[in-house]
Design goal:
single chain, 324 residues, alpha+beta, Protein Transport Mog1p, Chain A, 5-stranded mixed beta sheet, elongated, DUF4837
Length: 324
């Protein structure tokens, strides 16, 4: 009996130790939240004063490349004393509080998985404002990278089968099964997903490596190429021309796709004189092994509909690209 008693006590001790183990080894609940939704954890006083102002200025700034202003993130605020239990499962959050030190930490999966949280403390509201201003770019980058991964995870649940893309272009893309092939030739692919009013679209083609130089002329070359391809491959009724909108200059950034240098271009397309327009994101991927720029693009036609998350889905698809 004594041996049995010792065994039972030992088991209780082992279970208790497991309950008190480091948070890194504990089971993490599944996070929740819509794509690009950000929870702000701070007091009502700070939210309604300068701290809230700088958070809104940086994290609700207009999303680049959209025809109408839409914020980078949709935000909700709650006070720290309410931030417990279910509320801690939101995938993205910023916790900004007054404390005895000025600190910032960007942590992955602190309470749920997947999750990214920015923990910010300062001795004064002015200190919080300073830290947020100085670190907002890297916080946004961490949030956006995490959301791309989450959007790609959702795509993997049900993917479009596209066996000919690797054969014709040496390329694979993870595309949701809601898309269908709209047009395909050896030189040009066009996939489309129907919306209630409009569509989201993915196009793939290639141009010679000499067509785009890595200098200040790159943006002009990319616009010229996409306009030529649009006119040739994407005919519009009544002789309309699918082209880059002339009134607004696109944004261009250096990027990387599957380990290859790429130009990322965001702007607005239009059908000239037809009152049709929408956003696009284009990646010109440098593929020196095959002496080409591989062009992959996503664009949305959805009149009177918010387009931020539609374009974000397209961006996540394009960033899943793998080259042979």
């Amino acid at each position: 009996m004594k041996a049995v008693y010792i065994a039972i006590v030992s088991l209780i001790v082992l279970v208790s130790c497991g309950d008190n183990s480091d948070s890194k080894t504990k089971y993490k609940q599944e996070s929740l939240g819509n794509i690009n939704t950000l929870q702000i954890v701070t007091t009502n006083e700070l939210w309604n004063d300068s701290v809230g102002e700088v958070i809104r200025e940086r994290f609700a700034a207009p999303t680049p490349g959209l025809p109408q202003d839409e914020p980078l993130f949709s935000m909700n605020q709650m006070p720290p004393d309410a931030y417990s239990g279910f509320a801690r499962k939101y995938r993205l959050f910023i916790k900004a509080t007054i404390a005895d030190k000025d600190t910032i930490a960007i942590r992955k999966n602190p309470y749920a998985k997947p999750q990214v949280g920015a923990f910010i403390t300062a001795k004064t509201p002015e200190g919080l404002v300073k830290i947020i201003r100085e670190n907002s770019d890297r916080i946004i980058k961490a949030f956006k990278n995490s959301e791309i991964v989450e959007r790609q995870r959702r795509t993997k649940i049900s993917k479009m089968r596209l066996d000919s893309l690797p054969t014709d272009f040496g390329l694979s893309l993870e595309i949701p099964s809601a898309y269908r092939m709209y047009k395909s030739t050896k030189e040009f692919y066009w996939m489309q997903k129907d919306l209630e009013a409009g569509s989201t679209n993915i196009i793939v083609y290639e141009v010679p490596l000499s067509a785009i130089k890595q200098d200040s002329t790159a943006i002009a070359s990319i616009i010229q190429i996409r306009d030529l391809v649009g006119e040739r491959e994407m005919p519009v009724e009544d002789d309309g021309i699918f082209m880059t909108e002339e009134a607004y200059a696109p944004y261009i950034f250096d990027s990387e796709i599957d380990g290859h240098f790429a130009y990322e271009t965001k702007g607005t397309w239009e059908v000239k004189d037809k009152w049709m327009a929408g956003p696009f994101v284009n990646y010109a991927i440098k593929d020196e092994a095959n002496d080409r720029w591989l062009m992959i693009e996503g664009f949305t036609h959805a009149p009177s509909v918010r387009k931020r998350d539609l374009q974000f889905e397209l961006e996540s698809i394009l960033k899943s690209a793998k080259l042979k």
